[in-house]
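Task: sequence design from structure.
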Protein backbone atom coordinates (compact mmCIF):
# COMPACT_ATOMS: atom_id res chain seq x y z
CA UNK A 1 0.00 0.00 0.00
CA UNK A 2 1.30 3.41 -1.01
CA UNK A 3 1.60 5.36 2.25
CA UNK A 4 3.55 8.20 0.64
CA UNK A 5 0.44 9.65 -0.96
CA UNK A 6 -1.34 9.61 2.39
CA UNK A 7 1.47 11.38 4.18
CA UNK A 8 1.77 13.99 1.45
CA UNK A 9 -1.93 14.63 1.01
CA UNK A 10 -3.30 14.15 4.53
CA UNK A 11 -0.57 14.84 7.08
CA UNK A 12 0.43 18.04 5.31
CA UNK A 13 -3.13 19.20 5.89
CA UNK A 14 -3.57 20.67 9.37
CA UNK A 15 -7.02 19.12 9.56
CA UNK A 16 -6.66 15.51 8.32
CA UNK A 17 -8.59 13.14 10.58
CA UNK A 18 -9.69 9.54 11.15
CA UNK A 19 -12.78 8.66 13.18
CA UNK A 20 -12.24 5.35 14.95
CA UNK A 21 -15.32 3.18 15.61
CA UNK A 22 -17.01 4.24 18.83
CA UNK A 23 -16.86 1.43 21.39
CA UNK A 24 -20.22 -0.04 22.34
CA UNK A 25 -20.45 0.05 26.13
CA UNK A 26 -24.08 -1.07 26.26
CA UNK A 27 -25.11 -4.39 27.74
CA UNK A 28 -27.05 -5.39 24.62
CA UNK A 29 -24.81 -6.65 21.77
CA UNK A 30 -27.52 -5.50 19.33
CA UNK A 31 -26.58 -1.95 20.20
CA UNK A 32 -23.34 -2.49 18.29
CA UNK A 33 -25.04 -1.17 15.16
CA UNK A 34 -25.95 1.96 17.12
CA UNK A 35 -22.30 2.81 17.89
CA UNK A 36 -21.26 1.93 14.34
CA UNK A 37 -24.01 4.09 12.87
CA UNK A 38 -22.93 7.04 14.99
CA UNK A 39 -19.36 6.60 13.78
CA UNK A 40 -20.37 6.46 10.13
CA UNK A 41 -22.51 9.57 10.49
CA UNK A 42 -19.69 11.50 12.15
CA UNK A 43 -17.38 10.60 9.25
CA UNK A 44 -19.98 11.96 6.85
CA UNK A 45 -20.54 15.11 8.92
CA UNK A 46 -16.85 15.96 9.05
CA UNK A 47 -16.38 15.34 5.33
CA UNK A 48 -19.24 17.75 4.64
CA UNK A 49 -17.42 20.38 6.70
CA UNK A 50 -14.52 20.25 4.26
CA UNK A 51 -12.21 18.05 6.34
CA UNK A 52 -10.06 15.38 4.66
CA UNK A 53 -11.51 12.40 6.55
CA UNK A 54 -10.25 8.87 6.06
CA UNK A 55 -12.96 6.63 4.61
CA UNK A 56 -15.21 4.45 6.75
CA UNK A 57 -13.84 1.10 5.62
CA UNK A 58 -10.29 1.96 6.65
CA UNK A 59 -11.38 3.35 10.02
CA UNK A 60 -13.46 0.25 10.76
CA UNK A 61 -10.46 -1.99 10.19
CA UNK A 62 -9.43 -0.96 13.73
CA UNK A 63 -12.75 -1.85 15.34
CA UNK A 64 -12.32 -3.77 18.58
CA UNK A 65 -8.56 -3.29 18.63
CA UNK A 66 -6.57 -1.64 21.40
CA UNK A 67 -3.99 0.36 19.45
CA UNK A 68 -2.17 3.57 20.26
CA UNK A 69 -3.97 6.34 18.30
CA UNK A 70 -0.57 7.63 17.15
CA UNK A 71 0.13 4.27 15.51
CA UNK A 72 -3.24 4.35 13.77
CA UNK A 73 -2.63 7.91 12.59
CA UNK A 74 0.76 6.99 11.16
CA UNK A 75 -0.70 3.94 9.40
CA UNK A 76 -3.60 5.87 7.87
CA UNK A 77 -1.61 9.01 7.19
CA UNK A 78 -3.72 11.45 9.23
CA UNK A 79 -2.93 14.17 11.73
CA UNK A 80 -5.89 13.81 14.12
CA UNK A 81 -7.82 10.91 15.65
CA UNK A 82 -11.34 11.04 17.05
CA UNK A 83 -12.12 8.16 19.40
CA UNK A 84 -14.70 7.45 22.05
CA UNK A 85 -17.58 5.26 23.20
CA UNK A 86 -21.35 5.07 23.15
CA UNK A 87 -23.78 3.53 25.60
CA UNK A 88 -27.47 3.20 24.92
CA UNK A 89 -29.86 2.36 27.76
CA UNK A 90 -33.59 2.53 27.27
CA UNK A 91 -34.29 5.96 25.74
CA UNK A 92 -31.01 7.54 26.90
CA UNK A 93 -27.67 7.71 25.15
CA UNK A 94 -24.26 8.54 26.62
CA UNK A 95 -21.45 9.43 24.23
CA UNK A 96 -17.84 10.11 25.20
CA UNK A 97 -15.51 11.51 22.55
CA UNK A 98 -12.00 12.92 22.45
CA UNK A 99 -9.94 14.52 19.71
CA UNK A 100 -6.23 13.66 19.72
CA UNK A 101 -3.37 15.37 17.92
CA UNK A 102 -1.33 12.35 16.83
CA UNK A 103 1.80 14.42 16.20
CA UNK A 104 2.04 15.55 19.80
CA UNK A 105 -0.13 12.97 21.55
CA UNK A 106 -2.09 15.77 23.21
CA UNK A 107 -5.86 15.83 23.72
CA UNK A 108 -7.31 18.86 21.96
CA UNK A 109 -10.86 18.42 23.11
CA UNK A 110 -13.03 15.95 25.02
CA UNK A 111 -16.69 15.90 25.93
CA UNK A 112 -19.37 13.69 27.41
CA UNK A 113 -22.98 13.83 26.29
CA UNK A 114 -25.82 12.34 28.31
CA UNK A 115 -29.03 12.94 26.40
CA UNK A 116 -32.38 11.59 25.41
CA UNK A 117 -32.21 9.31 22.39
CA UNK A 118 -34.39 11.86 20.60
CA UNK A 119 -31.48 14.34 20.85
CA UNK A 120 -28.92 12.03 19.25
CA UNK A 121 -28.73 13.89 15.96
CA UNK A 122 -28.27 17.18 17.82
CA UNK A 123 -25.37 15.58 19.68
CA UNK A 124 -23.81 14.51 16.36
CA UNK A 125 -24.12 18.06 15.07
CA UNK A 126 -22.52 19.40 18.23
CA UNK A 127 -19.60 16.96 18.12
CA UNK A 128 -18.92 17.76 14.46
CA UNK A 129 -19.13 21.50 15.17
CA UNK A 130 -16.66 21.23 18.06
CA UNK A 131 -14.14 19.41 15.89
CA UNK A 132 -14.55 21.91 13.08
CA UNK A 133 -14.04 24.69 15.62
CA UNK A 134 -10.88 23.02 16.93
CA UNK A 135 -9.46 22.58 13.43
CA UNK A 136 -10.81 25.78 11.90
CA UNK A 137 -8.90 27.86 9.40
CA UNK A 138 -8.70 25.36 6.56
CA UNK A 139 -12.33 24.42 6.19
CA UNK A 140 -15.17 25.05 3.77
CA UNK A 141 -18.49 25.05 5.54
CA UNK A 142 -21.30 23.19 3.77
CA UNK A 143 -25.01 23.35 4.23
CA UNK A 144 -26.63 21.60 7.21
CA UNK A 145 -27.07 17.87 6.86
CA UNK A 146 -30.55 16.57 6.11
CA UNK A 147 -31.30 14.49 9.21
CA UNK A 148 -33.89 11.72 9.55
CA UNK A 149 -36.94 12.50 11.65
CA UNK A 150 -37.20 9.08 13.28
CA UNK A 151 -34.76 6.78 15.09
CA UNK A 152 -36.27 3.60 13.67
CA UNK A 153 -35.85 4.94 10.15
CA UNK A 154 -32.20 5.75 10.93
CA UNK A 155 -31.66 2.25 12.36
CA UNK A 156 -33.10 0.63 9.22
CA UNK A 157 -30.82 2.73 7.04
CA UNK A 158 -27.70 1.94 9.09
CA UNK A 159 -28.36 -1.78 8.82
CA UNK A 160 -29.25 -1.60 5.11
CA UNK A 161 -26.15 0.26 3.99
CA UNK A 162 -24.03 -2.58 5.39
CA UNK A 163 -26.11 -5.29 3.74
CA UNK A 164 -26.03 -3.51 0.38
CA UNK A 165 -22.35 -4.41 0.00
CA UNK A 166 -22.55 -8.16 0.62
CA UNK A 167 -24.58 -10.41 -1.70
CA UNK A 168 -27.79 -10.65 -3.72
CA UNK A 169 -29.65 -12.11 -0.73
CA UNK A 170 -28.32 -9.44 1.61
CA UNK A 171 -29.24 -6.79 -0.95
CA UNK A 172 -32.86 -7.97 -0.95
CA UNK A 173 -32.91 -7.87 2.85
CA UNK A 174 -31.53 -4.33 2.69
CA UNK A 175 -34.32 -3.36 0.31
CA UNK A 176 -36.96 -4.37 2.84
CA UNK A 177 -35.23 -2.27 5.51
CA UNK A 178 -34.99 0.75 3.20
CA UNK A 179 -38.64 0.44 2.24
CA UNK A 180 -39.46 0.50 5.95
CA UNK A 181 -37.24 3.54 6.54
CA UNK A 182 -39.01 5.47 3.76
CA UNK A 183 -42.40 4.33 4.97
CA UNK A 184 -41.61 5.88 8.36
CA UNK A 185 -39.81 8.96 7.00
CA UNK A 186 -40.57 9.65 3.30
CA UNK A 187 -38.22 12.67 3.29
CA UNK A 188 -35.12 10.82 4.52
CA UNK A 189 -32.52 11.71 1.87
CA UNK A 190 -29.94 9.05 2.78
CA UNK A 191 -32.57 6.29 2.64
CA UNK A 192 -33.58 7.46 -0.85
CA UNK A 193 -29.91 7.43 -1.86
CA UNK A 194 -29.28 3.86 -0.67
CA UNK A 195 -32.61 2.65 -2.03
CA UNK A 196 -31.63 4.04 -5.44
CA UNK A 197 -28.29 2.21 -5.21
CA UNK A 198 -30.00 -1.00 -4.14
CA UNK A 199 -32.51 -0.97 -6.99
CA UNK A 200 -29.84 -0.07 -9.56
CA UNK A 201 -27.42 -2.82 -8.49
CA UNK A 202 -30.27 -5.35 -8.60
CA UNK A 203 -30.82 -4.96 -12.34
CA UNK A 204 -27.29 -3.89 -13.33
CA UNK A 205 -25.36 -6.61 -11.45
CA UNK A 206 -27.58 -9.22 -9.82
CA UNK A 207 -29.71 -10.29 -12.80
CA UNK A 208 -33.02 -8.85 -11.60
CA UNK A 209 -35.55 -7.57 -14.18
CA UNK A 210 -34.80 -4.04 -15.38
CA UNK A 211 -38.30 -2.76 -14.69
CA UNK A 212 -39.63 -1.37 -12.50
CA UNK A 213 -36.30 -1.17 -10.64
CA UNK A 214 -34.58 0.86 -13.36
CA UNK A 215 -37.07 3.73 -13.40
CA UNK A 216 -37.56 3.59 -9.63
CA UNK A 217 -33.80 3.87 -8.98
CA UNK A 218 -33.70 7.07 -11.02
CA UNK A 219 -36.72 8.45 -9.16
CA UNK A 220 -35.13 7.81 -5.76
CA UNK A 221 -31.77 9.26 -6.85
CA UNK A 222 -33.52 12.43 -8.04
CA UNK A 223 -35.39 12.63 -4.75
CA UNK A 224 -32.21 12.20 -2.67
CA UNK A 225 -30.47 15.10 -4.43
CA UNK A 226 -33.58 17.29 -4.16
CA UNK A 227 -33.79 16.64 -0.41
CA UNK A 228 -30.07 17.06 0.35
CA UNK A 229 -28.29 18.95 -2.46
CA UNK A 230 -25.16 19.52 -0.35
CA UNK A 231 -24.44 15.79 0.13
CA UNK A 232 -21.68 14.41 -2.09
CA UNK A 233 -23.01 10.86 -1.83
CA UNK A 234 -26.44 11.77 -3.16
CA UNK A 235 -24.80 13.36 -6.21
CA UNK A 236 -22.47 10.47 -7.10
CA UNK A 237 -25.27 7.94 -6.69
CA UNK A 238 -27.38 10.02 -9.09
CA UNK A 239 -24.36 10.31 -11.41
CA UNK A 240 -23.95 6.53 -11.48
CA UNK A 241 -27.58 5.91 -12.35
CA UNK A 242 -27.56 8.67 -14.98
CA UNK A 243 -24.55 6.93 -16.55
CA UNK A 244 -26.49 3.66 -16.77
CA UNK A 245 -29.37 5.61 -18.29
CA UNK A 246 -26.92 6.75 -21.01
CA UNK A 247 -27.36 10.37 -19.93
CA UNK A 248 -23.61 10.82 -20.03
CA UNK A 249 -23.27 14.61 -19.94
CA UNK A 250 -25.60 14.89 -16.94
CA UNK A 251 -23.68 12.10 -15.20
CA UNK A 252 -20.40 13.94 -15.71
CA UNK A 253 -21.89 17.10 -14.22
CA UNK A 254 -23.13 15.20 -11.19
CA UNK A 255 -19.72 13.59 -10.60
CA UNK A 256 -18.14 17.04 -10.80
CA UNK A 257 -20.62 18.41 -8.26
CA UNK A 258 -20.01 15.48 -5.90
CA UNK A 259 -16.24 16.05 -5.96
CA UNK A 260 -16.69 19.79 -5.55
CA UNK A 261 -18.61 19.08 -2.35
CA UNK A 262 -16.13 16.46 -1.11
CA UNK A 263 -12.88 16.03 -3.08
CA UNK A 264 -11.82 13.26 -0.66
CA UNK A 265 -14.86 11.03 -1.23
CA UNK A 266 -13.19 7.72 -2.02
CA UNK A 267 -16.41 6.05 -3.15
CA UNK A 268 -17.02 8.84 -5.65
CA UNK A 269 -13.55 8.48 -7.16
CA UNK A 270 -14.13 4.71 -7.37
CA UNK A 271 -17.46 4.86 -9.19
CA UNK A 272 -16.14 7.63 -11.44
CA UNK A 273 -13.46 5.16 -12.54
CA UNK A 274 -16.21 2.94 -13.94
CA UNK A 275 -17.61 5.94 -15.85
CA UNK A 276 -14.21 6.76 -17.33
CA UNK A 277 -13.39 3.19 -18.39
CA UNK A 278 -16.74 2.59 -20.08
CA UNK A 279 -16.41 6.01 -21.69
CA UNK A 280 -13.19 4.94 -23.40
CA UNK A 281 -10.72 6.57 -20.99
CA UNK A 282 -9.20 3.55 -19.15
CA UNK A 283 -5.96 5.37 -18.25
CA UNK A 284 -7.95 8.07 -16.47
CA UNK A 285 -10.14 5.38 -14.91
CA UNK A 286 -7.11 3.59 -13.50
CA UNK A 287 -5.80 6.85 -12.03
CA UNK A 288 -9.20 7.49 -10.41
CA UNK A 289 -9.52 4.05 -8.82
CA UNK A 290 -5.92 4.24 -7.57
CA UNK A 291 -6.76 7.58 -5.98
CA UNK A 292 -9.77 5.96 -4.31
CA UNK A 293 -7.55 3.17 -2.99
CA UNK A 294 -5.12 5.72 -1.54
CA UNK A 295 -7.92 7.69 0.10
CA UNK A 296 -9.29 4.45 1.58
CA UNK A 297 -6.19 2.29 2.23
CA UNK A 298 -8.20 -0.68 3.56
CA UNK A 299 -10.67 -0.55 0.74
CA UNK A 300 -14.04 -2.06 -0.05
CA UNK A 301 -13.83 -5.21 -2.17
CA UNK A 302 -15.59 -3.69 -5.18
CA UNK A 303 -12.77 -1.15 -5.55
CA UNK A 304 -10.58 -4.01 -6.77
CA UNK A 305 -13.17 -5.08 -9.33
CA UNK A 306 -13.01 -1.58 -10.80
CA UNK A 307 -9.21 -1.58 -10.72
CA UNK A 308 -9.16 -4.95 -12.50
CA UNK A 309 -11.66 -3.63 -15.04
CA UNK A 310 -9.41 -0.63 -15.78
CA UNK A 311 -6.35 -2.88 -16.12
CA UNK A 312 -8.23 -5.21 -18.46
CA UNK A 313 -9.33 -2.22 -20.56
CA UNK A 314 -5.68 -1.18 -20.89
CA UNK A 315 -4.70 -4.70 -21.94
CA UNK A 316 -2.73 -5.22 -18.72
CA UNK A 317 -4.08 -8.72 -18.23
CA UNK A 318 -1.33 -10.00 -15.95
CA UNK A 319 -1.80 -7.03 -13.61
CA UNK A 320 -5.57 -7.55 -13.69
CA UNK A 321 -5.09 -11.17 -12.60
CA UNK A 322 -2.98 -10.06 -9.63
CA UNK A 323 -5.58 -7.46 -8.62
CA UNK A 324 -8.58 -9.76 -8.99
CA UNK A 325 -7.08 -12.77 -7.21
CA UNK A 326 -7.08 -11.06 -3.82
CA UNK A 327 -9.04 -12.89 -1.16
CA UNK A 328 -11.29 -9.88 -0.59
CA UNK A 329 -12.76 -10.20 -4.11
CA UNK A 330 -13.88 -13.82 -3.74
CA UNK A 331 -17.68 -13.54 -3.57
CA UNK A 332 -18.26 -10.56 -5.81
CA UNK A 333 -18.17 -9.90 -9.55
CA UNK A 334 -14.37 -9.95 -9.81
CA UNK A 335 -14.18 -13.50 -11.10
CA UNK A 336 -15.78 -12.77 -14.46
CA UNK A 337 -13.00 -10.24 -15.20
CA UNK A 338 -10.46 -12.65 -13.71
CA UNK A 339 -11.68 -15.43 -16.01
CA UNK A 340 -11.60 -13.11 -19.03
CA UNK A 341 -8.06 -11.89 -18.19
CA UNK A 342 -6.76 -15.45 -17.86
CA UNK A 343 -8.43 -16.35 -21.16
CA UNK A 344 -6.74 -13.44 -22.93
CA UNK A 345 -3.42 -14.68 -21.56
CA UNK A 346 -4.12 -18.14 -23.02
CA UNK A 347 -4.37 -19.77 -19.59
CA UNK A 348 -7.57 -21.58 -20.53
CA UNK A 349 -7.78 -24.19 -17.77
CA UNK A 350 -7.51 -21.49 -15.11
CA UNK A 351 -9.94 -19.26 -17.00
CA UNK A 352 -12.61 -21.96 -17.24
CA UNK A 353 -12.16 -22.86 -13.57
CA UNK A 354 -12.68 -19.22 -12.49
CA UNK A 355 -15.70 -18.97 -14.78
CA UNK A 356 -17.25 -22.02 -13.09
CA UNK A 357 -16.63 -20.56 -9.65
CA UNK A 358 -18.21 -17.28 -10.76
CA UNK A 359 -21.29 -19.06 -12.15
CA UNK A 360 -21.67 -21.05 -8.93
CA UNK A 361 -22.12 -17.72 -7.14
CA UNK A 362 -23.96 -15.95 -10.00
CA UNK A 363 -25.96 -18.61 -11.86
CA UNK A 364 -28.18 -15.94 -13.42
CA UNK A 365 -25.32 -14.38 -15.42
CA UNK A 366 -25.69 -14.22 -19.21
CA UNK A 367 -23.40 -12.30 -21.54
CA UNK A 368 -26.34 -10.95 -23.56
CA UNK A 369 -28.11 -9.51 -20.51
CA UNK A 370 -24.91 -8.05 -19.09
CA UNK A 371 -24.15 -6.40 -22.45
CA UNK A 372 -27.63 -4.87 -22.55
CA UNK A 373 -27.25 -3.31 -19.09
CA UNK A 374 -23.75 -1.82 -19.33
CA UNK A 375 -23.45 1.78 -20.64
CA UNK A 376 -20.36 1.37 -22.83
CA UNK A 377 -19.41 4.14 -25.22
CA UNK A 378 -16.16 2.36 -26.08
CA UNK A 379 -17.64 -0.46 -28.18
CA UNK A 380 -14.21 -1.92 -29.00
CA UNK A 381 -13.64 -2.47 -25.27
CA UNK A 382 -17.07 -4.06 -24.91
CA UNK A 383 -16.25 -6.49 -27.73
CA UNK A 384 -12.89 -7.34 -26.12
CA UNK A 385 -14.51 -8.05 -22.75
CA UNK A 386 -17.20 -10.21 -24.36
CA UNK A 387 -14.45 -12.04 -26.26
CA UNK A 388 -12.75 -12.83 -22.95
CA UNK A 389 -16.05 -14.01 -21.40
CA UNK A 390 -16.72 -16.33 -24.32
CA UNK A 391 -13.22 -17.79 -24.32
CA UNK A 392 -13.59 -18.50 -20.58
CA UNK A 393 -16.88 -20.32 -21.18
CA UNK A 394 -19.41 -17.90 -19.68
CA UNK A 395 -22.88 -18.51 -21.15
CA UNK A 396 -24.46 -16.41 -23.87
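Answer:
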Amino acid sequence: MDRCFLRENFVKSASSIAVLPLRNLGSDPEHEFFADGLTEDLITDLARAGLPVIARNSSFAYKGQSIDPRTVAQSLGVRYILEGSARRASQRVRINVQLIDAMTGSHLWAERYDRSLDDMFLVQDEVASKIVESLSGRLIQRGPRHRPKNMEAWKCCVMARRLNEQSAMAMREARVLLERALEIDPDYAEAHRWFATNLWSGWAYWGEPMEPSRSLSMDHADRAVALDPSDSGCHWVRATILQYERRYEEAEQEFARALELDPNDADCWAVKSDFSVLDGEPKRGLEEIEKALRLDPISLNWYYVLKGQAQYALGHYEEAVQTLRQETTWRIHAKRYLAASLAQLGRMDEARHEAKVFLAMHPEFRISYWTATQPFRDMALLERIVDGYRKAGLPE
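The longest strand covers residues 106-116.
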